[in-house]
Amino acid sequence: MSNWKHNLKGKLADSWARLLYSTPLWRLTNALAPRRMVVLFGHCVDDTNYDGLLAPDMCMSQAKLKSVLESFSKRGYQFTTISKGMDALKRGTPGKSLVNLSMDDGYLDNHDTLLPILMDQGLTASVFLETRVLDERRVNWTHHLHWLFDRLGKAEVVKRYIEREGAQSADSTAIQQAFDIGTKAYYHVKRVLKYDVNPHRRNEHLGAIFLEAGGDEEVLADRLYLTWDKAAALDEAGIELGAHTLTHAILSKLTPAEALAEVDGSARAMEARLGHSPEVFAYPFGRRWDYNEDSMNAVSAAGCRYALNTHKGCNTKDSLPLELRRVPIEQSTPLYMLHAEACGGFLLLEKLGIKLSE
Ligand SMILES: [Zn+2]
To answer: What spacing in Å lies between the alpha carbon of 8 and ligand 1's midpoint?
Structure first.
């Protein structure tokens, strides 16, 4: 799509969402659009971004979370878990319009901060666990990278990576080129590390540079992630726990056997620790190119009935069970955008042949 068309579409979507939110029009779309569940999606509720250990787009403040929850409760939406909500839609008995709050990876605040807020308001949610860190207190490469950029600076991290990888390697050339773009170096280097380099060597190099620079795996894991005891406390409190792989790997980059090991491994770890198998799964990173047919087969083989990506939209009884959509919440996401999706405003336009949402 050309740029001006993309911009125009964005402006129209924004205006439509504001109109829906600020007038009673939302009641009309809510009544006319097919029954649906909107799944909101974030990572953390923490006012300090874990003292800068996480990228700002991964966290929302407590005030932001409360305003989101209250706005949906006030308008009569029912909070539910993903499996219960989808089952109700499929049976044709959803009652009210449904909303779910989902949080990915399994960060510590999900127990320490989010849970008390949910309990206070009598609401449930879904939390997706990356399980290796719970078992071994070892974090995935993205945390090593963020920590290293912060401590050593981008140029030094790139230099040390290339020293380990070898200057002649195609991976090194790709990383150097991404760094040389200059602006947004963090974004470009991270994208190359995510998609273009050998993932096994990347994990090894970044892990080694992290240790060499004085990083402590256990300290970082304890600061960021839940323990199994805290995950079990979420489970007992009625929070739906879903699987999210062992190491947050991009499944489409793996062989079918490796993908199965990541998906099934996380489901089995949860079964062993919690006493029951997860029914839901979230694809790491969650874009369509981050998973494929083999990943979906792995999800089914692991016993999960529903899986979620990170493409915007809401879900109906006709949604593909292994490709459910979610609407991201960040600190800066306006409430009207979340509500426009939830009230079926974009879904209804789509039925009329007008596609303004993703
Ligand atoms: Zn994740």
So the answer is: 31
